[in-house]
Design brief:
- With 549 residues, the protein is of the alpha+beta class.
- The protein has 20 helices and 11 strands.
- It has helices spanning 32-41, 44-57, 60-71, 93-104, 110-113, 119-131, 138-151, 155-165, 291-327, 339-368, 373-405, 407-410, 415-422, 425-428, 433-446, 448-459, 466-480, 490-509, 512-524, 540-543; strands at 75-79, 85-90, 185-188, 204-208, 211-222, 228-235, 238-245, 256-261, 272-285, 329-330, 333-334.
- The radius of gyration is 24 Å and the shape is globular.
Length: 549
């Protein structure tokens, strides 16, 4: 099929002073901060394997899949035409193509197939790229990836499920596990009365032969088309973890009834559901009464992914704004040459540089945690900081990028409207802002080694930049103060630790002008609005790292 360019000469006018029509781009080759971070942190095979993914994600074909998956959201089909219960979610073909891209590339499994040798860095970098195709479908990719550590608490369950969860394949059909070459997993924890306080859950588990029967309601079930769900329920020993498959061992549909799909602000390509367990068959995972400790093995993984996804979205928005600025003229100059626009774009670029650095450093800690106690301590804290701060920055970032395009950025043909709706979701899921900050305080109090490891990392950059040194002294003063003063300032402490960690990483790894710009604009002359950079800051070295028009 021939590929025709859009028509520029119309009946009443000629289309001019616009960026070039969308074309294929290479989302990996164009991303200098990502490639540099991987070169610094990861084994060479990671970048080599990501190269083809970057080409796919940046292609017009895959970008069109993301748009179609949002324009045609999933639909709930409760019954077949004869009145039998189906409890299925039907998706547009574009959604399944995106799932195939991720699963057949093995990005849901790479962290475990390459454990200890860059697997988490590969997973995180791939998620960052896949998010730029469509963020919503990454939810089941994350859940499937994250389930393995929890399932290790049930060796017999793991032996059955692991081969299907690690398979480089995708099968979206509703079939028993034995009939599928590959499987995905979801999660159902929260209930109406508790939300993040899962100890308030009322779902019950009663023994039934080798398994259990679950009865109760789950307010949010992530990825309800999955082949099984890690879930929490009460038994005599306390709140416990279970795996509820879509089908029972005899091949019948399990008694997991979908009540409705959530009509969400964003995240439209992905389904989230309310479900009812009506005596649903399930297998125990982990020790009785230890459900929260077991499920936290999964949550720690999903938290890292929820920290990375907003950075991927910010990168996509940044590239969109920069390409528009390079292709459009106003007041006699390209927008990209206008001083105010340059300040805004450079400020956005600094945010992405810092987000990439912190995300990849957290992934490196996950990779090294098994053999290095210091890295294991960092792995407990870095995702918490990144998850909180990257998501705090996301919504304002999307609004600013949209404003760079003006009205054309506000309409649905631009990906920015979709990204703007999507921006809050990762902040709310896997622990909203206050929950994350309270978790930071819990780590500070109960796992002091994690804080010590982080402060040691920060100390390595001391003496290299004045604003950084002053921010670090501020952090030490708060930590040395009375313990009761920490909770009211938990958000400040989380933000400052996140920014200081980003700054320390940039001071160590990127050109001096980029690190200097970040430290001065975040730790020195800071403004809540993008584009308010110090007047004498050199912008060209920052902007030169962006892809050309």
């Amino acid at each position: 099929m021939r590929d025709f360019a859009p028509r520029e000469i119309l009946a009443s006018h000629t289309v001019e002073n616009q960026p070039p029509a969308d074309d294929d781009r290479d989302a990996f080759a164009d991303d200098l901060p990502l490639r540099e971070a991987l070169n610094h942190e990861a084994p060479a095979w990671v970048a080599e394997r990501l190269a083809s993914l970057g080409q796919a994600v940046g292609s017009r074909e895959v970008q069109a899949w993301g748009e179609a998956a949002n324009r045609h959201p999933p639909e709930l089909r409760l019954f077949d035409r004869h009145g039998r219960r189906l409890d299925e979610v039907r998706y547009h073909p574009a959604y399944h193509r995106l799932m195939e891209l991720a699963c057949r590339g093995g990005w849901h499994a790479v962290a475990w197939r390459e454990a200890g040798r860059g697997g988490h860095q590969a997973h995180v970098a791939a998620l960052y790229l896949l998010t730029q195709a469509e963020p919503g479908f990454c939810c089941p990719i994350t859940m499937t990836h994250a389930a393995l550590p929890a399932l290790r608490h049930a060796p017999e369950v793991l032996a059955t499920w692991q081969p299907k969860l690690l398979a480089h394949d995708y099968d979206g059909r509703a079939l028993p596990l034995a009939d599928k070459a590959a499987a995905t997993l979801g999660m159902a924890m929260t209930e109406k009365q508790g939300g993040s306080d899962v100890r308030a859950n009322t779902t019950r588990a009663e023994r039934d032969g080798d398994g259990y029967r679950l009865t109760g309601h789950k307010w949010f079930c992530s990825a309800p088309m999955s082949d099984g769900f890690l879930t929490l329920a009460q038994q005599s020993e306390g709140l416990s973890c279970f795996l509820a498959p879509r089908f029972t061992p005899d091949g019948a549909r399990n008694a997991i009834e979908l009540q409705r799909l959530k009509e969400k602000c964003g995240n439209r390509a992905n389904a989230s559901a309310e479900i009812e367990y009506r005596g649903a068959w399930a297998l125990p995972v982990g020790d009785p009464g230890r459900g929260i400790a077991t499920i936290l093995e999964m949550v720690q993984q999903t938290r890292l992914d929820a920290a990375v996804a907003p950075v991927g979205m910010m990168r996509q928005a940044l590239v969109c704004a920069w390409q528009h600025a390079c292709g459009r003229h106003a007041f006699g100059k390209r927008l990209a040459d206008q001083p105010l626009m340059r300040a805004v774009i450079a400020d956005l670029a600094l945010e992405v540089e810092a987000g990439v650095a912190l995300s990849l450093r957290a992934a490196q800690a996950f990779d090294a945690a098994a053999d290095d106690a210091e890295e294991a301590a960092l792995a407990r804290l870095l995702p918490t900081l990144a998850k909180y701060w990257h998501n705090r920055r996301g919504p304002g970032f999307m609004a600013e990028a949209m404003e760079c395009l003006g009205g054309i950025g506000y309409v649905e043909e631009s990906p920015l409207a979709r990204l703007y709706r999507e921006a809050p979701v990762n902040s709310i899921w896997e622990g909203s802002g206050n929950v994350i900050c309270l978790d930071l305080l819990r780590v500070v109090r109960r796992q002091p080694r994690s804080l010590e490891a982080l402060l040691a990392l920060l100390a390595k950059a001391q003496g290299r930049q004045g604003d950084y040194d002053r921010a670090l002294a501020e952090i030490h003063r708060l930590l040395a103060g009375p313990a009761e003063a920490l909770e009211p300032r938990a958000r400040w402490l989380t933000q400052r630790l996140a920014q200081a960690t980003q700054a320390a990483l940039l001071l160590d790894r990127v050109p001096a002008a980029v690190a200097e710009g970040f430290c001065r604009s975040r730790l020195g002359e800071a403004s809540p609005a993008y584009g308010c950079l110090p007047a004498d800051l050199a912008l060209t070295p920052i902007l030169d790292r962006l892809p050309g028009p």
